[in-house]
Amino acid sequence: MLRGGFGLIGPRHGRHSATVEQLASLSLPIGDDGVVIGVDSEGRPAVLGLNRPTPYDVVLIGGLWTAQVLALRAAATGARVAVETGRPQAWAQMVHAMGGGQNGLAVYEVGRVPPQGASAGTPVLVVRDCGMRPPRGRVASGPWQAVLTLLPYLSPVAPRLVRQARLVGVQRISPDESVDLGRELTLSQQDVESLPTLGDGLTLWCSERDRQYVMTQPTDAEVGLLGTPRRMD
Question: Quick check: 225 and 93 in contact, CB under 8 A?
């Protein structure tokens, strides 16, 4: 059957609909649109959606290597990456490889990150590599601007940062730290016992309701630039 100006009538399907409450239940820490950060326990790609129209804070309690891989892959998706760090020499090789800061990644001293002008067309990831006690950042998360704070271990400021974060990644930590963090994140006993034994490159990602282990597997180019996965720097 023909309709004037619209061609053939296609097959008819029922509408797909969900209530607001049902949509909320679909929230996952790792989605299918964003930065591929590794594979899950079943070998499926795990993707972290950093580019969002709402503020998004991530805390990674882990190694510099993982934070740098995330920064590198975020830049590869078109995001601009601003690194706030007290150890610029640790990021120098990445900056050089990416064209001296002209191709998506720039490094700033602690407290010196300028406004980034994030937008839907030019999303931004701010990586805060400021040690155990990072000061309150001048540049906060906002629409299309996510902030990733790297903590090498738990510290007195960790509980505040964890409570404020939408997503927390945890790599290998000590048994005592695991117990403390388990209370903060309401982790299962199995997760608490697993954290001190995690291998290099393995991260437990936690949102308010969900937990997911992800193994970050570097590409050959990433190994050439950053080396193999490691928890210690």
Answer: yes
